[in-house]
Amino acid sequence: MKTVTFRISRGDATGSKLVDYTTEVSEGMVVLDVVHKIQAEQANDMACRWNCKAGKCGSCSAEINGMPKLMCMTRLDQIPIDKPVTIEPMKAFPRLRDLVTDVSWNFRVKKKIKKFNPRPPDAPDGTWRMQQEDIDRVQEFRKCIECFLCQDVCHVLRDHDKHEEFIGPRYLVYTAALEMHPLDTEDRLPELKQAHGIGFCNITKCCTKVCPEHITITDNAIIPLKERVVDEFYDPLGWLWKLLRKKE
Amino acid sequence: MTNYETFEYDVLVIGAGGAGLRAAIEASAAGVTVGLVCKSLLGKAHTVMAEGGMAAAMGNVDDRDNWKVHFADTMRGGQYVNNWRMAELHAKEAPDRVHELEAWGAVFDRTKDGKILQRNFGGHRYPRLAHVGDRTGLELIRTLQDHGIHQGINVHMEYTIVTLLKDGDRVVGAFGYDRERGRFRVFRTKAIVMATGGLGRAYKITTNSWEGTGDGVSLAYHAGAELMDMEFIQFHPTGMVWPPSVKGILVTEAVRGEGGVLRNKDGKRFMFDDIPDNYKSQTSDNPEEGWRYTQGDKNAKRPPELLTRDHVARCINREVKEGRGSPHGGVFLDIAWIKEKIPNAAEHIKKKLPSMYHQFIQLANLDITKEPMEIGPTTHYAMGGIRVDGETQMSSVPGLFAAGECAAGLHGANRLGGNSLSDLIVFGKRAGEFAAKFAKENDFAALDLTQVEAAEQEALEPFGRAAAAEGPYRVQYDLQDMMQSLVGIVRREDEMVRACDEVEKLKARAAKVVVHGHREYNPGWHTALDLKHLLTCAEAITRCSLDRKESRGGHFREDFPEKDAEAAKVNTVVWKAADGSMKLRREAITEMPAELKQVIEDMK
Is A232 on the interface with B (CB under 8 A)? Predict the structure, then answer.
């Protein structure tokens, strides 16, 4: 048995402090196991969010030694444990208590994005036909577990606090999944340009790096959306074409 | 109710997994006001953990499939103590419910001709599971969530209900707290849909998350509803066994559906040794044929690894007990071997089982495309729960409906893989529909303040106790250890009699636990309040298991290892008597109509 010290950020919206907890750990443990052990043995009232403990629900997001990660998928042998391990809540959202943040903003943002709107069914029995190769990209986006680590790491939200003007990587991926869905007929480009602020993203790819589902957020979702917005609103030839078509 | 913030909804749905969301969507579409309470954030419920798929006889891959085959498979898997009406409705309605998900944006894997792809699973005669790789549950919950948020449903995230409120026989409200601040809330309602999922946390080794504490089953029981079939607990044959911290986490049956095989430490495929008589005609007796089955050969019979979960779990248990297990007390599940059969096997495995690949790489440092996994049985699913009417999903308490895992009936003594996700959408919809109907036909009733005050007092008691008293976690761990060892996968009279005593002792301890700190997001307090639910479920499981003196499905008695024809005619029902004690009776199963009997006969 080894011992490890966890330096856990405790507190609420009014203030916080780092508290050291030392406990014994065994082989194969993940950070969440240690947090649970401390919670059960030393700090019954320490708040942390978790559900599946298998990287599928995206509840236990936190910053481990400053890196946004899922606590349940971070094994102790992947981080240095010979010195104290710092565990803090996500910084891009207001803290409720200890490791739990108020992520309700994300749920409000999603509601503002126009819902899926399919074309009429392809077959008389009310079903559709799609080829696997046409949905591979959308399925990649739909792997998202809504852990909000990409939102947490995004400097537009984290450092510049543009929560009112920018929907963040998660909802650009969500929009991309809808826009690239072979059945969808809705147009979300005007609001993407305006209210949802896609222009704020300057493709630093931090979101892609922290995604626990390995979704290539920037390259596969955000850049193609930016291209669509450019084609729609800024391409001079396209503009002319649309103008002429309107006149006809 | 001046002291409490009070919300008023025609229909209140408790639980926001697949069943709860589907019920809320349906009730809302019927034009009534709907509140949805979830213990976690929206979209995080245990449904996300479902991997393999949802069973629906669409016949996209094998056109011999239809509702009759699905019905017969479900009844055979449940060993004929199922609510046959539910099994019939489920088989008939599942395809429409799956197509509806597609209309709401779900993106299932496709066949070559562009239809929804279906895969093989244990106990299903034909490839039947609509799926998205091995993350079908996530696709289901996200689709319902993203559709549901535009339906005018009012969602209360991170709220916990601690008691239901009654007016005479009827449920008329609920009382709970919000996690964030620990403030008490009152819900006034005409009908309630209970959709709280499972109770796996009553056991030490389980696939269930912290939420699976049987809240709905217990809330309904204490509100006077009857519970049924509580002895039937599904131990999933394949949970992770190593490292210790991940013990119990689910390894999807799809691994076996894609050709994975079970071996003991001698490298032997032991499942060929023990094929039950009622499955002999559909099960292959040689590895070659089994492999062809998993690769879509319609003339091949299924390999014995895809027998029902109860049977596979017991075979694994036997191998381990008789000393043929793997180093960490399980057996080997090998999908890497298929490299002998197909080129690019590693890529194929990663494509078909992406989350399994990641789960093992990240948690066990093991590459499943190269090495076999170590797996063992884990508490997975409660077939039993709230006794409901098969058509409407209403419990024995007027106005109280239930759907999904917390309801009983569809799965009988053993659930087939893939029948859970389809259960959620078929009966979630029905519960929502009939709850809305009930709400339209009934008025709000006055709430009884004394019930609310008593519940509040009970909920706050743990704060006032002596600081030196025991904490709630200790009691929870001891309960889990006790159930694991005394009412687990193999059961015996003497051990279960002891378990009954233990439950009483644990109840006494739970009544004395102390909680430190304050009410804001305090997991110690939440654990203390969940203990009542866990103990209620543990008592019901134990009593029902003691009473069923035979072995059937998920209920295996070492002292009664055979099936008993008389026991096949009854369900076990428990309810709370006026004096607060748990009463039990054997309820005769109503006779199946001749046409359904004929279906079962034809499919034999």
Answer: no
Q: Does A14 touch chain B (CB under 8 A)?
A: no
Q: b or e along B319-329 (b: 16 or more beta carbons within 10 Å of the residue's beta carbon)?
A: bbeeeebbeee
pLDDT of residue B604: 84
Give the domain ranges of chain B.
5-232+383-441, 238-379, 459-578
ipTM of the complex: 0.95
Please report residues of B whose CB lies closer than 8 A to that of A119. Answer: none
* CA pair distance B18, A184, nearest whole angstrom: 23
**φ/ψ of residue B449, rounded to 5:** -60, -30
Mean pLDDT on A198-214: 96
Residue A193 has pLDDT above 90, yes or no: yes
Of B104, B211, B527, the CB nearest to A51: B211
B236 in active site = yes
Give the burial string for A205-244 (b: 16+ CB within 10 Å, else e).
Answer: bbbbebbbbebbbbebbbbebbebbeebeeeeeeeeeeee
CATH number assigned to the domain with residue range B238-379, chosen from the 4 options 2.60.120.260, 3.40.640.10, 3.30.1540.10, 3.90.700.10: 3.90.700.10
Q: What is the pLDDT of residue B245?
A: 82
In a 10 Å sphere around its CB, with 0-12 CB exposed, 13-18 middle and 19+ buried, how is residue B509 labelled? middle
Instruction: Considering only the beta carbons, identify the residue of B113, B146, B358 that sits closest to A115.
Output: B146
In sequence order, what are the beta bridge partners of A22? Answer: A5
3-state helix, strand, coil in chain B (%, to 5): 40, 20, 40
Q: Which fold has domain B459-578?
A: Methane Monooxygenase Hydroxylase; Chain G, domain 1 (1.20.58)
Of A55, A97, A126, the CB nearest to B520: A97
CA separation for the pair A79, B259 (Å, rounded): 36
C-beta atoms of B149 and A39 within 8 A: no
Q: Which residues in chain A (132-171) have CB-CB distances under 8 A to chain B? A: 132, 135, 138-139, 142-143, 145-146
Residue A248 pLDDT > 70: no
**Out of A55, A102, A184, closest to residue B359 by CB:** A55
**Taking 90 as the threshold, does the pLDDT of residue B134 lie above it?**
no
- Which pLDDT belongs to residue A180? 98
Q: How far is CA B335 from CA A2, A94, B135, B236, in A?
A: 34, 45, 18, 18
How many angstroms from the chain centroid is the CA of residue B289?
32
- Does the annotation mark B256 as catalytic? yes
- The residue of chain B nearest to residue A44, with distances taken between CA atoms, is B524
Average pLDDT of chain B to the nearest whole number: 96
Chain B interface includes A82 (CB < 8 A):
no
Q: What is the CATH number of domain A2-101?
A: 3.10.20.30
B-chain residue closest to A114, CA distance: B150
Q: What is the average per-residue pLDDT within B585-595?
A: 97
C-alpha span between B266 and B520 (Å, rounded) = 54
A107 lies within 8 A of chain B by CB: yes
